[in-house]
UniProtKB/TrEMBL annotation, chains A, B:
Name used for this protein in its record: HTH marR-type domain-containing protein
Pfam families assigned: MarR_2 (PF12802)
CDD domains reported for this sequence: HTH_ARSR
Domain (HTH marR-type) ranges: 11-146
InterPro entries registered for this protein in UniProt: ArsR-like_HTH, HTH_MarR-typ, MarR/SlyA-like, WH-like_DNA-bd_sf, WH_DNA-bd_sf
Amino acid sequence: MEEDFLVEMDYAGLTARLKRLSDAFVYSTKEFYKSVDLDIEPNWHMIFLILQKNEQMTVMEIAEALQLSHPAIVKLINKMKKRGYIKSEKDPEDFRKYQLSLSEKALEKLPEIETYWEAGNEAVAQIMNHNREILKQLEILEQNIAEADFKQRTEQILKTNKP
Amino acid sequence: MEEDFLVEMDYAGLTARLKRLSDAFVYSTKEFYKSVDLDIEPNWHMIFLILQKNEQMTVMEIAEALQLSHPAIVKLINKMKKRGYIKSEKDPEDFRKYQLSLSEKALEKLPEIETYWEAGNEAVAQIMNHNREILKQLEILEQNIAEADFKQRTEQILKTNKP
DNA sequence: ACTATTTAAGTAACCCGTTACGCAAATGTG
DNA sequence: CACATTTGCGTAACGGGTTACTTAAATAGT
């Protein structure tokens, strides 16, 4: 077999493996979209879905729902706007906000895109061996980090070891 | 509880969750290093370890061992050089290559850094509930993707569904 | 020996996400 | 009502990684 040093690193390799795996999906998805001539980015998927569910949302609402920082959402939304997938209108009750929603173009293209997403989900299922275990494991990490993150835990451990 | 839309997305949220989790570790580690006044970046860890194991390596060798692209390694190495952690000398047998190794400064600082890494590993173990299951699951995904990546599988599924 | 091909590395152009900062609008408080 | 604080969101500066392209050196092949 081939040697994979990140695997060999064991616990210390976890972070980089998560990133590497995520990238493997992202770049592969990107190429897939290109091959079927779809003018969208992989991670717009989550924006499409959340705006399908909620119709109208603000930047901050999306950021909270996805648990990402607001600048991340701003960037995504700006690109999607530039390509005409997002409609945004000033909130009449709070002029700081813009109510975001899917554009006509987005709604129009969605049916086609959805057939690709369905195939993609099946591909992910295959890669997961049709087993939900990885999702459960991710949830455990997410919850534990929410309780106390890496930095807090590491500092606590050092404090306990020292004296 | 709070709602996490990426979790709700199920299979379609996997990629973004992997990235989000990786980032949670990276940025928390970054802050930890800052708090203990360590002048290194989180993902230099893998470079330090692999050069501790192998003494001398080229950019391509590191890229292969970590299964990352060579430009990724070039960038890491350049930053580490700038901070004085990497020694590089032209390979006398092949002038395209540079043999990379840890500098005196790196070797000097390593003992201290290692105490932090040990605490960090324990923190990761806590976050994993002292259970190796997540590592096994990642290995499954890595292997399945190595056999056929997301794009190939998705195209295959579409081909099978169509006719 | 002398081209043709492969390989090592570096660079450019992108996409992703984060923290830090700034500004304007909304809300709270004396 | 006026001043202070909070909230929404846009931008800048970083750090990470990828693919595509280029250059130079090593290796193949006739």
